[in-house]
């Protein structure tokens, strides 16, 4: 059974319900973020969602420029810089380019011990990072995450969009899966906002 960590506040969550029809292996591509996402990155948040999968997206505004936020997000080798549920991480193959594998160890209290993750997209021009979970000791099978950054209308801040698709674990409902994963993502983005804003604050 998935259990939720403490539920943070001050987030705007926009979810698109996903359904499939037809055979058991039928997949339908669904957008997991709303039209608030710029066209230049919207395609990254469209996931192929299977019958026993769900997808969701979390949107977070940060009072810091894209360059500052991206300097934290793009470090595939150092997720613990802002992901507080990560205890440690080390690269097991690759040098930080697409295809790099990392092994992440999570803190106690979660239904997981470690996760092996592959870097799928690292686009410094469009500010897009994506990774997929390819192994480990956890219940989030076939998890894939995409994070994009783009400037606020004033140009002084950053809007972060993180979407994901994941299998619904046996014995859990779609709602339980949403509740658990959304809370993790929200905590991560809240932490990212604090770190990026502290980095940008004049000394």
From TrEMBL:
Coiled coil: none annotated. Pfam families: Polyketide_cyc2. GO terms for biological process: abscisic acid-activated signaling pathway. Keywords: Abscisic acid signaling pathway, Cell membrane, Cytoplasm, Disulfide bond, Membrane, Nucleus, Protein phosphatase inhibitor, Receptor. InterPro entries: Plant_def-hormone_signal (IPR050279), Polyketide_cyclase/dehydratase (IPR019587), START-like_dom_sf (IPR023393). One of its GO terms (molecular function) is signaling receptor activity. The keyword Disulfide bond applies. It comes from the Eukaryota. It is found in: Cell membrane; Cytoplasm; Nucleus. GO terms for cellular component: cytoplasm; nucleus; plasma membrane. Belongs to the PYR/PYL/RCAR abscisic acid intracellular receptor family. This is Polyketide cyclase/dehydrase. It comes from Cynara cardunculus var. scolymus (Globe artichoke).
């Amino acid at each position: 059974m998935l259990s939720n960590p403490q539920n943070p506040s001050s987030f705007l969550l926009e979810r698109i319900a996903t359904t499939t029809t037809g055979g058991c292996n039928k997949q339908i591509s669904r957008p997991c973020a709303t039209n608030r996402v710029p066209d230049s990155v919207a395609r990254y948040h469209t996931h192929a969602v299977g019958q026993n999968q769900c997808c969701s997206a979390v949107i977070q505004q940060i009072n810091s420029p894209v360059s500052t936020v991206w300097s934290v997000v793009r470090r595939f080798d150092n997720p613990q810089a802002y992901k507080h549920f990560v205890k440690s991480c080390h690269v097991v193959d690759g040098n930080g380019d697409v295809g790099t594998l990392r092994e992440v160890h999570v803190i106690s209290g979660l239904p997981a011990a470690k996760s092996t993750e592959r870097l799928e997209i690292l686009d410094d021009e469009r500010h897009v990072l994506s990774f997929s979970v390819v192994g480990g000791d956890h219940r989030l099978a076939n998890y894939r995450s995409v994070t994009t950054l783009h400037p606020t209308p004033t140009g002084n801040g950053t809007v972060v969009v993180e979407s994901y698709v994941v299998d619904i674990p046996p014995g859990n409902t779609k709602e339980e899966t949403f509740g658990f994963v959304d809370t993790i993502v929200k905590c991560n983005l809240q932490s990212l906002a604090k770190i990026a804003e502290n980095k940008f604050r004049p000394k």
